Amino acid sequence: MAVRREDSVRAVRRALDLLAAINGSRGATVPELVRDSGIPRPTVLRLLATLAEAGYVLRTGRRWEVTPGVARLASGFNFDTWLAATSAPILLELLGKVGWPSDVMMLGGAEIHVRASNRPQCGVAIEANFQGMRSPLADSASGRAYLAWCPEAERRRLIALCVPRAQERAVLRELDATRVRGYGLRDAALKPPVGAIAVPVMLGASVACVLDLVFLPRVEPVERIAARCLGPLREAAAGLSAAFATLHQAAPVRPADAPSGTPGQDGTAC
Fold first, then answer.
1. How many separate domains does the chain show?
2. What is the spatial distance between Cα 252 and Cα 203, in angstroms, rounded to a whole number?
3. Strands (E), 118-250
4. 171 and 95 both lie in a single domain
5. Rounded to two decimals, what is the model's pTM?
6. Are 199 and 137 in a shared domain?
7. CATH code of residue 41
8. Dihedral angle sign, alpha carbons of residues 88, 182, 256, 169
9. How far is residue 63's CA from residue 59's CA, in Å, rounded to a whole number?
C-alpha cells in the first residue's frame, strides 16, 4: 500500500521532534519519549531505528543519546542572519510605538555589544555609526540589565572581571535598584550626554540578550521615557524571548516576570 504524502510528512516531523527531545534532555529512555512526545511506542521505536541508521542517535543501555552527527544539522546555521531577520519586525514595531532607537545587545567577554538595531530606520540620529559598538557592563543600561537578571554565579564571575574590588558594593547596590526599578539605567556621568534604559530578554533563567532604548534627556527626561516606553519595550523583549525559546526549545520569560525588582567604538555606553 502506498504511503500517503501527509503520513510521510508527519513521520518526518515526529522524527525531528524525537531528535530534539533526545538532544534537549541529554538522553532519554523509550518510555520517557513516549510519555513526553505522545507518539505511540511502536512508532517511537521505528523512528529511533531510522535515526540510528542515519547516524543521529545511538543506544547506551536503556537510554538513547544523540551522536556527533547532529552537529552537521546546524553547521550551516548563521546566528547573525537569524537574529537580524527575527529582530527586524520587532524593532520596527517598537520604533513606531516609542519614536526612539533601540538595540539588541549581547554579551561579549566583559562587555555588551550591539548585534541588531533599528537606528537606520529612526529619524533621530544618535550615534549613527553603531556597527560593533560596545558598552561596559557596570555603567551602561544594557550591561546593568544583563547583570541584574543573569544567574548569580554568572553575575559574580562577570563582576570580578569588569569591576574593581573597591567598587563592587556600589555596583551591587545599583543592580538591586535595577531589579526594583524594573530596567537598567545608563550612568548619567557617561559621555556623550545621551540616555538609555534597557530590559533583559530572558531564556529560562538566563539572559539571552538585552533590549535597550536610547534617547536624548534634554528632549525627553528619563522619568517620562520610562512611563511612556517601558511597556512597549517589555512587549518587544517578550517577542524576542519567544523567538529565542523557539530556537533553543526553552520556555520564554517576560522581563516583568524576572526577579523583581549609545555604545561607541571608544567604549561610549548605552
1. 2
2. 6
3. 134-136, 184-185, 195-203, 206-215
4. yes
5. 0.74
6. yes
7. 1.10.10.10
8. positive
9. 6
